[in-house]
Amino acid sequence: MTERYDVVVVGGGLLGCLTAWMAARDGAHVLLVDKDQVNQHASGQNAGSLHFQLEYRMVEAGEEAARVAAEAMPLHLDAAGMWARMEDEIGEPLGVRQTGGLMVAENSGQVGMLEFKAELERSWGLDVRTLDRAELDDVAPYLSRDIVAANLSALEGKADARIAAPAVGRAAIAAGATVRARSRLVGAHRVPTGWEVTLRETDRAGGERARTVRTEAVVLAAGVWTTELGRVFGAELPTVPLALTMTVTSKIPKFIPHLVQHAGARLSLKQSLDNTVLIGGGWPARLMRDANGVPAFDRKHQLIPQSIAGNARAAVNTVPALERVPAVRSWVGATTVAPDQLPLVGAVRGAPGVFVATGGSAFTLGPSFARVLTDLIAGRSPDIDLAPYDPARFAEGSVS
Amino acid sequence: MTTDGSWRHTAPERGDAVTISVDGEPVRACTGETVAAAMLAAGAAFERDRSGAPRAPLCNMGTCFECAATVDGRLLTRTCLIPAREGMVIKTPGRL
Amino acid sequence: MFDLAIIGAGPAGMSAALTAADHGLTVVVIDEQQRAGGQIFRQPPETFAGSVLHPTAGYGWATELIRRFEADPRLTTEFGWSAIGVLHDDAEPDGLCVAINHPEHGTRMIGARRLLIATGAYDLPVAFPGWTLPGVMTAGGVQTLVKAQKIAPVGDVVLAGAHPLLLLVADLLIRDGVPVREVAFAQSIPTPVDMLRALGAVPGHLRMLTETGAILARLVRKRVRVSSRTIVTAARGTEHVSRIELARVDRRWKVTGAPREVAASHLVLGYGFSASTELARQIGCELVFDSPRGGWVVAHDERLQTSVPGVFVAGEPTGVAGADQSRAEGTLAGLGIAASLGRAVPAAAFAEAERGIHASTRFSAVVQSIFEPVRGALGDLATRETTVCRCELVTRGELDDFLESSPFVSNVNAVKLSCRTGMGPCQGRYCENSVGAILASAREQTIGLGGRFSAHLPIKPVPVGDLRDLDAVTEQPASDGSDTGRSAS
User: Fold this and answer.
1) Mutate which of B50, B95, B96 to test chain A, going by most A C-beta atoms within 10 A?
2) Does the pLDDT of residue A345 top 50, yes or no?
3) What angle do CA A107, A112, A116 make, to 5 degrees?
4) b/e string for C267-289 if b means 16 or more Cβ within 10 A?
5) Is B63 within 8 Å of C276 when comparing Cβ atoms?
6) Between vectors from CA A254 to CA A249 and to CA A257, what angle results, nearest 5°?
7) Chain A neighbors (3+ CB pairs < 8 Å)
8) pTM (2 decimals)?
9) Rounded distance, CA A171 to CA A166, Å?
């Protein structure tokens, strides 16, 4: 017999788990599926930054690009508030600490960028303050003497990417959702009540079987697989995959309370609640592709020596004490951005009942994405204007 | 040659005597001997785990990291792999 | 760029290096130890006067292989250096960059057209109450301390596990005057027929059992108790082991009765071996789960090339099958690599190398099945309070609770991510077997389906500062192949 659900969420990352949890809490009959494991990909592989200032990648392309990127600020402000309440609502630790984030500058050019950025961010309602060297001595004595100033956003911080999505997955189950790993969506067609989707599942003996499920709504929460899954539903959802490098150290006594980013270099670092230091910031890795050049997301992406070295150099230059701290793992996580650096959030045009969210800071913004998706599923109008994030904005003939 | 440790030397011809420092205490060793072997024979304690429980080498082949210590300032150095040298400073502050 | 970089200077690495050099390849061999030999033939330090390698009976060839290897001026060797990872550099599309690290000299990059993974094996870890206490050590660990460092345990010793290496270590200890109280085997002691079939193919110690009779006689003479169907269920003590609990088990190693206590200061564990496959994992080679052959082993073709082009494997990482087979595979890999680089390798040479492998594998399957660990039963030795992950202090109870509350988890990497098992300095080498067995039992699935831990650079932790040199120019062989020099590629 065909199983029936109100919502099928595709993708067991943080966003998928949050959406399943919120929709189930809303009273919907929810199935969450992941072709692999919950939290196995970007949600569990990213470094867990809660960053609400514009990132280096958004400002390195110039002021106009920064202004466009700033249009995501309403989502950031919303997410900052949601993260602050999340552990209470989930009822489990998620490692959330909003103890402030610093974006540091080493020279006058970077200080100028900080000033421009702070003004832009304040115009969108994000409270950002520029600290001079004397203040940094007091607030962040671990920073290199070469750092001359930093922008501080008190809302920034971290969540623990290791544990967040599984904890939300457990909350989703407690709210009545069904969560299935090793269940890959391979087909979909329209039926009068919504969609019939085909799932290819692996059983305990390693065998494969197909499962057919009917649902009124489908949520694509699939990160780098969004474009591929969109085609299953006949939709074009353009995304740009990025393979990024991260490194984690062994445990050392706590000395970095902030999220630290750099205004002139690819760097983000923070000390986790486990006392390890997570180092990243957008250093590229080699995205594996098949013979036709199509990204092969199921393969192991490759580290690039120059990226690991460059990231380590940026980290040691900014926080000199890291030089002697043992690095335990450098790995690659694949994430995705939209061509204009703004997320894709909303209803999928041409596929009624199908909704999508991805792009950019999907970990940081996950709670807000999930909330507006849950509103859309239930037919409510989200309180955030989603027009700038319309998934159809790249389609031919669309008005941007 | 017996020591007060839980291990003892069996071959007397061990190379030139050197002295290393383990948590401030002098430990006799000899060239060629690994720091871990010297510590075992001297009854020197290895780094304790986060709970304060004692640990000691498990594998003696560089894979288990139970013998790791801070050696001349280098954190997490496997003492089973490095030969003792005169003046080497070993510290075992306790793991996190 | 070197033609070939070999990781591991044990029987496989040494024979591959000599074979490859014979075919004109420039070869660099990297090993963490100070001298050639690998774990099985670990040599005493050169400074120990009169201390020479005494290979286990049946391994007369080892002395000669090491001598030839050490004397060969064609080979570049890097002892005391750890291979921390292998990277692909766009600047060198025809080769691989091997990152090596030394505690005092930092990181260097070595370019090579081909890579041979000959990283050996390590003792199979088994978690049970008290296994983190000082005084508990693996059979391989005790063997190398006794043979290569010339030190011996003080006080009574119990050896326990399932692998005949225990007999060899007990014998070594007795020869050093160490009081051995008991040698306990989980299985029935192999029958004389089994032993005979096993000759020549005991994992890690191929011909060891030729001496079994003599060893057993010596143990009996010293009044050492040799027990079968007996497993160690706990090590007790505060600062050091003082008591050991041993219990009877059934044919599937399930504990059947209350344990008895034996007073001892040292517990030596020997349940068999796990293949060292971290480097293969880091590079992205395909692995398969094969319990009798050492758990996760590296998949390869008939010439020992892995699923990653240019990367070959020889010795225990192909399946734990002993030093004879490792040596034979090293020779075949050396030939295969030479052929892959366009060197003329006569078909007869391949045929002879393959005969060498067949000669040693003839016995392997039998032996591997006799000594295959019963992984499920070993997983059950961990009680709720038992530390499963020694680095991160994760208990069996925490794992059980997590698996119960998170029904969607069915892969060891998902367990690793949530519970931190395998995230510490040993990077999972010492808990993967326990986590795999516990997960398989909880989900009623095979260990293979539960997957294996991923491995990442650096496969042995190094300071963040040392990662800054990963973009250093790769080193090239000197023109005479006897030394390295830095030059732009």
Assistant:
1) B96
2) yes
3) 150
4) bbbbbbbbbbbbbbbbbbbebeb
5) yes
6) 100
7) B, C
8) 0.95
9) 9
> What secondary structure letter does DSSP report for A376?
H
The domains of chain A, with CATH numbers, are 3-43+163-239+340-389 (3.50.50.60), 96-155+241-336 (3.30.9.10)
Residues 51-90 of B with CB under 8 A from C: 51, 53-66, 68, 71-72, 74-78, 81-83
Is C150 part of the contact surface with chain B (CB cutoff 8 Å)? yes
Per-residue pLDDT band at B1 (split at 50, 70, 90): very low
Q: What is the pLDDT of residues B56-77, one digit of tens each?
A: 999 999 999 999 999 999 999 9
Q: How far apart, in Å, are the Cα atoms of B44 and each of A206, A397, B55, B91, C61?
A: 50, 76, 11, 11, 38
Location of structure tokens 């109450």: C129
Interface residue B17 vs chain C (CB under 8 A):
no
Continuous segment of H or E residues that includes residue C401? helix C396-405
Instruction: Determine the Cα–Cα distance for residues B6 and B26; give it in Å rounded to an integer.
Output: 18
Q: Residue B35 maps to which CATH number?
A: 3.10.20.440
* Residue C446 to residue A205, Cβ atoms within 8 A: yes
Q: Domain range holding B57?
A: 17-91
Chain C, window 267-326: residues with a beta carbon less than 8 angstroms from a chain A beta carbon: 284
For residue C98, list its beta bridge partners. C86, C110
Residue ranges with strand state E in C173-221: 180-185
Cα separations in angstroms, C165 against C32, C168, C223, C361, C488: 23, 5, 19, 19, 48
**What are the backbone angles phi and psi of residue A361, rounded to the nearest 5°?**
-90, 60
pLDDT, one tens digit per residue, over C459-477 is 999 999 999 999 998 888 8
**pLDDT exceeding 70 applies to what percent of chain A?**
98
Judged by a CB distance cut-off of 8 A, whether residue A327 touches chain B is no
- Predicted ipTM of the assembly: 0.96
Domains of chain C: 2-122+274-345+471-477 (3.50.50.60), 125-271 (3.50.50.60), 382-443 (1.10.10)
Whether residue C443 contacts residue C42, with contact meaning beta carbons closer than 8 Å, is answered with: no
Facing residue for C462 by CB, picked from A39, A286, A327: A327
Whether C249 contacts C378, CB under 8 Å: no
Give the number of C-alpha atoms closer than 13 A to the C-alpha of residue A104, restricted to the C-beta side: 31
Looking at chain A, how many residues does it have? 400
pLDDT at C219 over 80: yes
DSSP C358-394: HHHHHHHHHHHHHT---HHHHHHT--TTSEEETTTTE
Within a domain: B96 = no
Cα–Cα distances in Å, from C70 out to C15, C65, C315, C432?
A: 12, 9, 20, 35
Q: Which residues of B touch C52 (CB under 8 A)?
A: none
Do the domain assignments include residue B8? no
Instruction: Say if residue A284 is exposed, middle or buried (CB neighbours under 10 Å; 0-12, 13-18, 19+).
Output: middle
| B chain contacts of residue A250, beta-carbon cutoff 8 Å | 75-76
Question: Could you tell me if B74 lies within 8 Å of chain A, comparing CB atoms?
Answer: yes
